[in-house]
Amino acid sequence: MTGRPDPVAALALARRRAGSRPGARADGQRLALVIEGGGMRGVIAGGMVSALEHLGLTTAFDAVYGTSAGACAGAYLLAGQALPGTRIFYEDINNRRFISLPRLARGRPAMDVDFLVDHVMTAVKPLDTARLIAAAIPLTMMATRVADAAPVPLTGFRDHGEVMRALRATSRVPLLSGPPVPGPDGALLVDGALSAPVPVGIAEREGASHVLVLLTRPTARPAPGGGGALMRRLLVRRLSPAIGAAFAARGERYAALARLLGAARLPGGAALSVVTPGGPGAFVGRMEKRRLALIDGAAAGWRAVMAWAGQAGGVAFPDAAMGKEALR
């Protein structure tokens, strides 16, 4: 953090004070929200969007972009259900029904995205897709095309089925969470993190003048390595050479992304603000199942956004007390 005012936070807060609404702005700016995923690390993104909702800042944005768990967080935010969406991580999927590495030996997904989408997001904590579709703020979920590993934006949802198929596609980690998902044009799609882990590029191409990025890992954390020769061979054989190459290059891609996000502006000139978790709970594993660790992660995300909005030391994450109670 520097002593300079954050132009992205200033715009969002000014819009809240003015009661500005999407499609009826008087400031001539376009503010985009970009949300990183990361499996169970998405609980941090959940805490972040819950803070935005608590602060009354949802309508300050003109577009939301998310990948994998970040897309899920964006969906629940625009449906007005940010906190229930966050609770999914430590109430509904921190169990063997969703995560089980031994299932791989039986040819079944280690992370059951179908259970998440078809059961949890449909029946347990149902996403209000009607409200999401009707929202004046469009949501774009990023997926990756199997044939060439190109990023594929999924947006303009017309019905419940399209929303849920997009959530399934953006979260479908190759080999670990089930087969590819057919996209709107029939092309097979997998997890958007392989091509657009933090989709700031599309946000700027679509006219954003200001971009708020929510990261689910501290910037000081090392980028993921590019190893995994066996995994790459499996991806080449079962999906495509392009997907195998994208997997191998993920560390290099994230390192380049980290450099990009370290600037005050994106290459096209859009003002950039990046929020990262810090303190207790800032490090959450991709396949974390411990309830307390997940609650702490959500709280870390909440604190980070509250500090970004000038509310450091303000209202605590609503479920933080649940973690303290479990330790007694």
From TrEMBL:
Motif (GXGXXG): 37-42
Motif (GXSXG): 66-70
GO biological process: lipid catabolic process
Ranges of residues in domain PNPLA: 33-204
Pfam families, per database record: Patatin
Motif mapping: DGA/G: 191-193
InterPro entries attached to this UniProt entry: Acyl_Trfase/lysoPLipase, NTE, PNPLA_dom
Domain of life, per lineage: Bacteria
Keywords in alphabetical order: Hydrolase, Lipid degradation, Lipid metabolism
PROSITE patterns in the record: PNPLA
GO molecular function, one term: hydrolase activity
UniProt entry tagged with the keyword Hydrolase: yes
Keyword Lipid biosynthesis in annotation: no
Active-site residues (renumbered): 68, 191
Name used for this protein in its record: Patatin
Taxonomy of the source species: Bacteria, Pseudomonadati, Pseudomonadota, Alphaproteobacteria, Rhodospirillales
